[in-house]
Amino acid sequence: AQKVTQAQTEISVVEKEDVTLDCVYETRDTTYYLFWYKQPPSGELVFLIRRNSFDEQNEISGRYSWNFQKSTSSFNFTITASQVVDSAVYFCALKGGYNKLIFGAGTRLAVHP
Amino acid sequence: GAGVSQTPSNKVTEKGKYVELRCDPISGHTALYWYRQSLGQGPEFLIYFQGTGAADDSGLPNDRFFAVRPEGSVSTLKIQRTERGDSAVYLCASSRDGSYEQYFGPGTRLTVT
Fold first, then answer.
1. Which has the least CB within 10 A, A19, A84, A90, B80?
2. Among B108, B94, B99, B3, which Cα is nearest to B47's?
């Protein structure tokens, strides 16, 4: 079975704090793809990153970084020096059969000034 | 360029009525997906079109749900005999041929009273 677990339902931080959002996945596929999406209060899902299972290099994009660990089936997302505009629900997803995305339940991040 | 658009943005209907939800994908995107998002949950896959044909409709909950994409562009999700449990945000996404990155529209919030 394929599954994505985001154990953190809600996280609250103060601006400029670093925050890590956890994602654990389950799949029997040897090649797979993982994603992170952001859903701000406006509601539209925004694509952040795609990671292939055969590329274990961590990735950094500005204040965002992703840590992919096949040994623990995790694909965690860190925001450095968080800002109020980072407040949103963040979803981790796994590509399933026929390209459908299997989403976790999401983590709601609240960044307070 | 224009993103994925969905109409209407909000739809309120009475139990038992028929509704149609429309999705306009990004121009040139051959793949189109429908998802349903209930409050506090991640999106759940409904159906995937590659061109005009439904390649995977395994997520449709029952035969009251049906979707078409007759010309390989615009898609319509149709729900017959709506039930209160159908209330959710219906999301549409599209992607380029050969790409796993899906771009989402703003969704249609369906409320069945």
1. A84
2. B94
Nearest C-alpha neighbor of A93 from the set B85, B91, B65, B108? B91
Parallel/antiparallel/unpaired status of strands B10-13 and B108-112: parallel
Cβ atoms < 10 Å from Cβ of A41: 8
Answer for the pair A11, A112: CB distance below 8 angstroms, yes or no.
Answer: no
Q: Give the distance from residue B22's alpha carbon to the nearest chain A alpha carbon, in angstroms.
A: 16
Q: Which residue has the higher pLDDT, B61 or B2?
A: B61
Give the model's pLDDT for residue B98.
81
- In the prediction, which pLDDT does A54 show? 87
Which pLDDT score, from 0 to 100, does residue B1 have?
56
Amino acid at A109: L
| Residue B97: closest C-alpha in chain A | A99
Contact B41 A44 (CB under 8 A): no
CA distance A50 to A53: 10
DSSP sequence for B36-102:
EE-TTS--EEEEEEETTEEEE-TT--STTEEEE-TTSS-EEEEE-S--GGG-EEEEEEEE-TT----
Asked if A67 and A79 count as a contact pair (C-beta separation under 8 A), the reply is: no
**Contact check, Cβ <8 Å, B42/A47:** no
Task: Select the residue from B34, B101, B108, B110 to test the A interface by mutation, using most A Cβ atoms within 10 A.
Answer: B101
